[in-house]
Amino acid sequence: MAHRWTNDLTYTDVTPKAAYLNRRQILAGTVGLGAIGLAGAASAQGELEPNTLEEITSYNNFYEFGTGKGDPAKNAGALVTSPWSIKVDGLVDNPGEYALADLLDGLTVEDRLYRFRCVEAWSMVIPWNGIELADILNKVGVQSGAKYVAFETVVQPENMIGVQRRVLDFPYVEGLRLDEAMHPLTILATGIYGEPIANQNGAPIRLVVPWKYGFKSIKSIVRITLTDEEPPISWNKANPREYGFYSNVNPNVDHPRWSQASERKIGGGLFADRQDTLMFNGYEKEVASLYEGMDLREFF
Ligand SMILES: Nc1nc2c(c(=O)[nH]1)N[C@H]1C(S)=C(S)[C@@H](COP(=O)(O)O)O[C@H]1N2
Ligand SMILES: [Mo]
């Protein structure tokens, strides 16, 4: 397919970081991407400067392991990620409990350098390795009545201090409309910088939806359900006034308690200027058509 731009990295490959970054910078500057211009999405917005692996793995939100940004790096070592299986159920042709390797077998792992924008108004740029969610959904066979995809994070109470302390209603759950889930920008990530994804980033597999606030990108997924009803999502359950189902990055719709017009890029230093937040986090050209005719204030 035209939009598959680098097919040479699999999730078992280990690429030295320096070499990886080099190759990445070359790609970001030179590769024009087929039908919908995925790399164009990155390069057209100027050079994307990836965060370091150290930054990406030390400043996290993963409430199962505590609410502090440093807690996941400290505590997620306790997460057991092998063996790992994912239950696929609901409106699918081939439901079942899939071993992770079986679910991903034959599918292409791709490099995606994406902006990542948390609803808390900080951001990073992350070089993911992942599989298009559409490839996985097509593999299990989506039935015609399906309208949404629901996701669930693993619960390992004995290993998860945040679950023991009930800092949120677990399991963490998330959801997408089916067309959002099938969009080629939407991936399930299995790696960062060519290395298996760290536990604190949602090992062994987590969702990445780059035009939405970070909390939509649910970690350590153990269940994927095709459904005809909008599924409940954790942050909306916790505070429906502040967190909507769509949660598209939008500089013009403020959070009730802070502005969303700008963001602080992690690693920019204490006195670095904030940067403007981009509509749909810079992916407007690719995804705006999904929301044509929708009032983005009402459906926030
Ligand atoms: N299961 C689970 N997934 C989660 C979260 C969480 O607390 N639990 N936090 C979300 C939020 S708010 C953000 S910003 C991102 C952070 O991803 P990162 O730590 O890999 O940067 O994960 C999202 N996915
Ligand atoms: Mo977030």
From TrEMBL:
<feature type="binding site">
    <location>
        <begin position="63"/>
        <end position="64"/>
    </location>
    <ligand>
        <name>Mo-molybdopterin</name>
    </ligand>
</feature>
<feature type="domain" description="Oxidoreductase molybdopterin-binding">
    <location>
        <begin position="82"/>
        <end position="234"/>
    </location>
</feature>
<keyword id="KW-0500">Molybdenum</keyword>
<dbReference type="InterPro" id="IPR036374">
    <property type="entry name" value="OxRdtase_Mopterin-bd_sf"/>
</dbReference>
<keyword id="KW-0732">Signal</keyword>
<dbReference type="GO" id="GO:0030091">
    <property type="term" value="P:protein repair"/>
</dbReference>
<feature type="binding site">
    <location>
        <position position="118"/>
    </location>
    <ligand>
        <name>Mo-molybdopterin</name>
    </ligand>
</feature>
<feature type="binding site">
    <location>
        <begin position="217"/>
        <end position="219"/>
    </location>
    <ligand>
        <name>Mo-molybdopterin</name>
    </ligand>
</feature>
<comment type="similarity">
    <text>Belongs to the MsrP family.</text>
</comment>
<keyword id="KW-0479">Metal-binding</keyword>
<dbReference type="InterPro" id="IPR000572">
    <property type="entry name" value="OxRdtase_Mopterin-bd_dom"/>
</dbReference>
<dbReference type="GO" id="GO:0016672">
    <property type="term" value="F:oxidoreductase activity, acting on a sulfur group of donors, quinone or similar compound as acceptor"/>
</dbReference>
<feature type="binding site">
    <location>
        <position position="60"/>
    </location>
    <ligand>
        <name>Mo-molybdopterin</name>
    </ligand>
</feature>
<comment type="subunit">
    <text>Heterodimer of a catalytic subunit (MsrP) and a heme-binding subunit (MsrQ).</text>
</comment>
<feature type="binding site">
    <location>
        <position position="206"/>
    </location>
    <ligand>
        <name>Mo-molybdopterin</name>
    </ligand>
</feature>
<comment type="function">
    <text>Part of the MsrPQ system that repairs oxidized periplasmic proteins containing methionine sulfoxide residues (Met-O), using respiratory chain electrons. Thus protects these proteins from oxidative-stress damage caused by reactive species of oxygen and chlorine generated by the host defense mechanisms. MsrPQ is essential for the maintenance of envelope integrity under bleach stress, rescuing a wide series of structurally unrelated periplasmic proteins from methionine oxidation.</text>
</comment>
<feature type="binding site">
    <location>
        <position position="201"/>
    </location>
    <ligand>
        <name>Mo-molybdopterin</name>
    </ligand>
</feature>
<dbReference type="GO" id="GO:0046872">
    <property type="term" value="F:metal ion binding"/>
</dbReference>
<protein>
    <recommendedName>
        <fullName>Protein-methionine-sulfoxide reductase catalytic subunit MsrP</fullName>
        <ecNumber>1.8.5.-</ecNumber>
    </recommendedName>
</protein>
<dbReference type="Pfam" id="PF00174">
    <property type="entry name" value="Oxidored_molyb"/>
</dbReference>
<keyword id="KW-0560">Oxidoreductase</keyword>
<feature type="binding site">
    <location>
        <position position="153"/>
    </location>
    <ligand>
        <name>Mo-molybdopterin</name>
    </ligand>
</feature>
<dbReference type="GO" id="GO:0043546">
    <property type="term" value="F:molybdopterin cofactor binding"/>
</dbReference>
<dbReference type="InterPro" id="IPR022867">
    <property type="entry name" value="MsrP"/>
</dbReference>
